[in-house]
Amino acid sequence: MKRLFFLSAIILLLGCRDHTEEKVTPPQPELLQQPYGTPYRLTDSQKFIYDHTALPEITVEMNAAEWNKFLNYYDQNPNNEEYVSGKFTFFKNGTTEILDNIGFRLKGNTSRRRPEGNSGDVHSVTNPDWHHASFTVSFKKFNKTQLFHQSEKLVLKWFKDDAMYAREVFSYDLFEKFGVWTAPQSSYCRLTIKITGDAKVAYFGVYQMIEPVDDTFLANRSSFFTTTGNLWKANWGASLKDPSLNNMGIEDVTLTYTNTPIYDYKGSKSNLAVAKAQLSDFITQINSKTGEDFKNYIVQKMDVNLFLKTYAVNVTVGMWDDYWSNSNNYYFYFDAAGKFYFIPYDYDNTLGTSLLMTDSGIQDPLNWGKNADNPLVAKLLSIPEYKTQYIKYLNDLIDKKYDLFYVDYAQQRIQNWQNMIASYVSNDTGEDMEIKDVPANWGNCGFYKLRGNSTADNFFIRKASSIPKN
Predict the structure, then answer these.
(1) Rounded to whole angstroms, how far apart are CA atoms 290 and 288?
(2) Is 253 helix (H, G, I), strand (E, B) or coil?
(3) Displacement of CA 416 from its chain's centroid (Å)
(4) Which of 112, 130, 197, 452 is most buried (CB neighbours < 10 A)?
(5) pLDDT digits (tens, 9 = 90+) for 311-339
């Protein structure tokens, strides 16, 4: 009798399971096994630092004199790039690593702020007024042989205007998942600033760690290109249309002066003239050549498929403050053979944070930006086979069979990260104290959400609806 009851219970449970919706599990993403070229394999250093499954604790400690110097540098020039000296502690998975005499400075553009008090204030021991700001840690600034897991620097970025604590992490992760190996790595951490002698440390909350685009960045990708080429940062106005040498140079920032060229060369000054001539010629050629001449030239000078994949991700995440739309936010690199590589950068204003276009969720992916002013993408898409390939990449990204941008998988990825960080968001600045499903309040599409499944306001669903069919 007991045996009969046991069998009946099993049958009943099986029957109930048949009527229960099973949890959506992303399939093995075939695109990552053999995408459209060689998959990008992270270095051991990248795997350790930029680990989405961990939330390491970082403490930066310095004495009051160094911290006051840090604040004074900001007062003299908010754009300053002066380093002060401190100690860096990294705690992960039960292991603590300490590096002495590291360099620490401010980072950012519109996110650049004074991290304590107001102009002219010095550090307050009893009542400090902390503010979120972004920072760069340089491990070898004051010790030329010192590295942290083979890295020279680390960017620590606060989640300005992103109450979801997810947009840029998601975007860079999607680049990686789609095989765009030129995108930086990123992940989460907890940041504490300690002024030696203070009774209480300053917990700054959850921050994003980002791989800087520098010599280490190039070395981490040495299986794809040579690392003896020319690296540039493209600032606002970098349209790749005007070949004038006057737009090119090396950024010069002092405590009283800031000069940032549109195209900021990141190599040595001794090679600047050669690098400028190379860039000027590239811009001239991509603008002057047409038809088969352009196609023959560009296929020799670029990895066209990689660029199309990059732009498919760029448009899918809704990056409007980019090259195509706003002549902004990218690096690029010419390797030793003169081949051009586009490096996407700065993706916090995405996934529904929209500006400069009516709606970044449903903007036409084939006319994303200013075709005449910023011509490279439009000229590539004017070639039928490249347009077809670009549309295929867009459709691959939203396809349910791949763990990429499809709404269920994207939401699960973000939820997993938020589950990890939620208990640590509250912080001593009193800013950005909770996770909220809203875009930046200065945008023009404040209705967007990343949670839920409404066709009216869910960014993933609305974006997928805007993708042209294969």
Answers:
(1) 7
(2) strand
(3) 19
(4) 130
(5) 999 999 999 999 999 999 999 999 999 99
Task: Give the whole-angstrom CA distance, residue 73 versus residue 76.
Answer: 5
Region label for 81, one of left (φ > 0), alpha (ψ between -120 and 50) or beta (otherwise): alpha
Residue range 287-314, pLDDT digits in tens? 999 999 999 999 999 999 999 999 999 9
Examine residue 368 and state whether it is found in any structural domain, yes or no: yes
| CA–CA separation, 242 and 248 (whole Å) | 11
For residue range 146-167, what is the model confidence (pLDDT) as tens digits? 999 999 999 999 999 999 999 9
Judgement on whether residues 140 and 288 belong to the same structural domain of the protein: no
**Structure confidence at residue 18 (pLDDT):** 37
Q: pLDDT tens digits for 339-348?
A: 999 999 999 9
Give the pLDDT confidence score for residue 40 in this predicted structure.
Answer: 74
d(CA 410, CA 414): 6
Give the whole-angstrom CA distance, residue 463 versus residue 170: 15
CA–CA distance, 228 with 218 (Å, rounded to integer): 9
Q: What angle do CA 98, 103, 108 make, to 5 degrees?
A: 120
What CA–CA distance (Å, rounded) separates 347 from 354? Answer: 12
The length of the chain, given as a count of residues: 470
Distances from the Cα of 255 to the Cα of 69, 220, 277, angstroms = 12, 33, 31
Q: What is the pLDDT of residues 215-251, one digit of tens each?
A: 999 999 999 999 999 999 999 999 999 999 999 999 9
The yes-or-no verdict on residue 277 having pLDDT over 90 is yes
Please state, in angstroms and rounded to a whole number, the distance separating the CA atoms of residues 425 and 189.
Answer: 11
Kindly tell me the sign of the dihedral angle through the C-alpha atoms of 63, 68, 71, 72: negative
Q: 27 versus 137: which is more confidently predicted? A: 137
HSE-up of residue 362 (Cα within 13 Å, Cβ side): 12
Q: Mark which of 398, 427, 458 sits at the end of a domain.
A: 398
What is residue 20's predicted lDDT score, i.e. its pLDDT?
35
pTM for the predicted model, two decimal places: 0.93
For residue 354, give the amino acid letter: S
Q: Which residue in the block uniquely carries the two structure tokens 């690096």?
A: 331
- Amino acid at position 309, single letter: K
**Pairwise CA distance, residues 161 & 163, whole Å:** 6
* SS3 per-residue string spanning 156-171: EECCCCCCCCCHHHHH
| Kind plus residue range of the DSSP H or E element containing 70 | helix 64-76
If asked whether residues 77 and 188 sit together in one domain, one would say yes
Residue 39 belongs to a domain: no
Q: Categorize the per-residue pLDDT at 28 as very low, low, confident or very high, splitting at 50, 70 and 90.
A: low
Q: In which residue are the tokens 């499954």 written?
A: 53
Do 52 and 186 belong together in one domain? yes
Last residue of a domain, one of 216, 237, 264: 216
